[in-house]
Design brief:
The complex is a heterodimer. By secondary structure, chain A is α/β, with parallel strands linked by helices. Chain A is about 25% helix and about 20% strand. Classes of the chains: A alpha/beta, B mainly alpha.
Chain lengths: ~450, ~300
């Protein structure tokens, strides 16, 4: 079990952005000069597309202003100066509640997936029915949480899965592990759910989850698969596990699959069993810091203080990256806070910063060889560079999981990932307001699901 | 404290075009040195003249058109070296120089520089020289691998590239292992060539030659003139093999390799366009057929193990 350290030192100020998810901005419930206590709700929005924001410390609100956010923008944030005394709101566990009440609990606790969607929206999307809930534990950087033993991790995950299934009204659920993550596999193996012995099944060949549900005679299973990573892996993951294709402009909820992360599962478990809202999270700090580790921090802690807690910078830092060196966002200041979407912090030294100049593509096909979804990145980027987005779409650019492997192996140092994202954004923007302009009758999007019209 | 910001990925593999080119040049050096033993010092003169002309041409063209001068990336050096390696070493020195001027000037830059040329500049130069000065370009002897030792040092070799099949293979294997060159094309090419030649009754001692191995590993794998798709590269290798055998069967496998590969260059982009991979999860033709057959089987619920979902 990886040791998770708890950050003891309370930072000088806590910056809590009022938007830590994709959706509406929350309105602040406190004013400048107010005293807040730990766990108090400080931001809320009526809109279904948002999750509540809670204070992670006890202290005084010193200002409500636009502050830097790890996604690169500025977001209206509540800045709190922590006080000496630790005062916490009363935490009441909410056991044995109905499914619809559970969704409100999730929204109230402010639980958000690491990819940005509020968890209650994943579980109970408007106008869609979820039948399968998946907990994606395939990437080790998302295994965040403070557990005593690995068995505790496993049993809490299963409990959380049951809660998620209950909230979603889904009949089936699965935890997905990574093939080479033996520690987690051992933790889940031989665990008993409802008296039945659990076995971790590796996904083989073209078999999908439905086969394993039938094979094990159980509605809750644990499977393992190859590691896949990237910014937009949800569609590929859905296909790999259930065999359902997610159409353009849709997400996995359109085909009845809800994908949750380990972090949100843990947060839900805490919210139900301890009544604690989502106010702390585990980030893994790596790279050029004096003691890299996984550390449990309060949401809103500035990166600066997290790095200090990890022994400070080793030498002169060159780059500070939130959420992984491959797909993460480079920060221009270390005064940005840890949010619900932050999973890791990476520091690169000044001489590790890449300063390559692109040259022409030599069609070496290294990008095509590493692509996990069988694209021809070199050709797609050539089209994207010239603004020929329709051709990009014909070449299945929307399948791209944005893992960045093509950019990493390119000998010509072409910015493949950047160009692909540019083209994808342009395509998505072009279709964004289409449904309002056109009636569904004369609209042929090739979209078989109910979303979009 | 200043932080650099840039778009992801923030970590990349330490591989550049320059590195690949110089690695190829270095990998061919043992063969060049070995050729001195067979052909004497004129071989070195040939290589030097050829590389010099290639570099000078590239510099002159890029200077004239106001482009960035890219001699350091090693591509011109590689073209010069490879042209010298497929020319008989007895020729007067102006032959390789004209050859490389043609290769770099017409073969590479007239088509738009690295990554844009349709025909491999080395083959284009060889073809140009052979058509223009046929009698000078004819090698003094055509090799035959009669003993196993000839795989290491081929006595009958007519050109530098044919001196040692073993060392070329070794160089290619190292480059493939380092992923500097591609493995699908050489494997498909070699298997097809040997198989077809065997079926046609050609003696393999005329087929397993230094030049053929050189063609498979260094000429056919030239990135700009070969397809990008995975299936396309296998098909391209097979096409190369078929064309080489067609020429080789009726003439000889030394000239056959160059003509065959040059012709295969013509169809490379067509292969590329017609083998674009489908979106993941799309059924292939065989899978569709299989499914339609299986769905007609009665009592198929008993076969549900075989049927997914």
């Amino acid at each position: 079990m990886t040791n998770v350290y708890v950050m003891e030192k309370i930072p000088e100020k806590i910056i809590i952005p009022l938007k830590q998810h994709d959706g509406c901005l929350c309105t602040p419930l406190v004013n400048k000069g107010d005293m807040v206590s730990m766990g108090q709700k400080i931001g809320e929005c009526e809109c279904y597309d948002s999750a509540s924001i809670h204070s992670s410390v006890c202290g005084e609100v010193i200002s409500i202003e636009e502050a830097a956010n790890p996604n690169g923008t500025k977001v209206n944030s509540v800045i709190i100066q922590p006080a000496e005394a630790v005062e916490c709101v009363d935490l009441t566990p909410v056991k044995d509640v109905s499914a619809s009440k559970l969704v409100d609990v999730i929204k109230d606790a402010g639980i958000v997936e690491h990819y940005g969607t509020p968890t209650h929206k994943v579980l109970r999307p408007e106008g869609k029915q979820i039948d399968t809930v998946l907990i994606n534990a395939t990437s080790s950087e998302w295994i965040g949480g403070h557990y005593d033993t690995s068995a505790q991790y496993a049993s809490q995950m299963i409990d959380a899965l049951k809660l998620l299934m209950k909230a979603a009204g889904a009949s089936k659920g699965a935890v997905v592990l990574r093939n080479d993550d033996l520690e987690s596999i051992n933790a889940f193996d031989h665990l008993r759910i409802d008296g039945k012995l659990l076995t971790v099944a590796p996904l083989m060949g073209k078999r999908k989850l439905s086969y394993y549900f039938k094979d094990m005679g159980s509605d809750i299973i644990v499977v393992s698969q190859e590691r896949i990573y990237g910014q937009k892996i949800l569609d590929l993951l859905t296909y790999n596990l259930t065999g359902r294709r997610v159409s353009f402009c849709c997400d996995p909820t359109d085909v009845g699959v809800a994908i949750c992360g380990v972090k949100s599962a843990k947060a839900l478990y805490d919210a139900v069993h301890e009544g604690r809202p989502y106010i702390e999270t585990v980030v893994s700090v790596s790279g050029k810091v004096n003691s890299p580790k996984k550390i449990l921090v309060k949401i809103g802690t500035p990166f600066k203080d997290v790095i200090d807690a990890c022994g400070g910078y080793m030498g002169e830092p060159g780059k500070l990256i939130a959420n992984g060196a491959v797909t993460g966002v480079a920060q221009y200041t270390d005064d940005v806070p840890v949010t619900k979407m932050t999973t890791s912090i990476t520091v690169l030294s000044a001489d590790e910063v890449i300063r390559d100049v692109s040259i022409d593509c030599t069609h070496c096909a290294r990008c095509a060889d590493v692509c996990p979804v069988d694209l021809i990145p070199s050709r797609i980027t050539a089209f994207a560079d010239r603004g020929r987005f329709d051709e990009c779409r014909q070449m299945n650019i929307l399948n791209c999981v944005e893992c960045g492997r093509c950019s990493a192996v390119c000998p010509s140092k072409i910015h493949l990932l950047q160009l692909i994202r540019y083209a994808k954004n342009s395509i998505e923007n072009a279709y964004e307001d289409l449904s309002s302009k056109e009636s569904p009758a004369n609209l042929k999007l090739g979209c078989g699901c109910s979303g979009g019209n | 404290m200043t932080f650099t910001i840039s778009a992801p990925p923030h970590k990349k593999e330490n591989i550049t075009f320059k590195k690949i080119m110089w690695a190829k040049v270095l990998a061919l050096m043992p063969v060049v040195l070995l050729s001195v033993y067979l052909f004497g010092l004129p071989a070195i003169g040939l290589v030097a003249a050829s590389i010099f002309a290639a570099i000078a041409t590239e510099a002159a063209i890029q200077k004239a058109f106001g482009q960035k001068i890219t001699i350091a990336d090693g591509h011109a050096v590689l073209i010069g070296l490879m042209v010298a390696m497929i020319i008989p070493p007895e020729v007067p020195l102006w032959i390789p120089m004209i050859g490389t001027v043609f290769a770099v000037g017409i073969g590479k830059h007239a088509f738009g520089g690295i990554g844009s040329y349709v025909f491999n500049p080395v083959l284009a130069a060889w073809l140009f020289l052979s058509l223009a000065w046929g009698s000078i370009m004819a090698p003094t002897s055509y090799p035959q691998t009669s003993a196993l030792f000839e795989l290491v040092l081929e006595n009958g070799a007519g050109v530098i590239a044919g001196v040692s099949p073993f060392f070329i293979l070794l160089a290619g294997a190292v480059l493939i292992f380092r992923r500097y060159i591609e493995w699908r094309i050489p494997v498909a090419f070699f298997v097809t060539t040997v198989l077809l030649a065997f079926l046609l009754g050609d003696s393999l001692s005329y087929v397993i030659l230094g030049v053929v191995v050189f063609g498979a590993l260094f000429i056919a794998t030239d990135t700009s003139t070969s397809p990008t798709t995975k299936n396309g590269r296998v098909i391209y290798g097979i096409v190369c093999g078929v064309l080489v055998v067609v020429y080789g069967h009726f003439a000889n496998y030394v000239d056959g390799t160059f003509y065959g590969l040059f012709l295969a260059n013509c169809v490379a982009s067509l292969i590329d366009n017609s083998t674009l991979p489908a979106s993941y999860g799309t059924e292939t033709f065989l899978q569709r057929k299989y499914r339609s057959i299986v769905s007609k089987i009665p009592f198929k619920d008993r076969l549900e193990v075989f049927l997914d979902d």
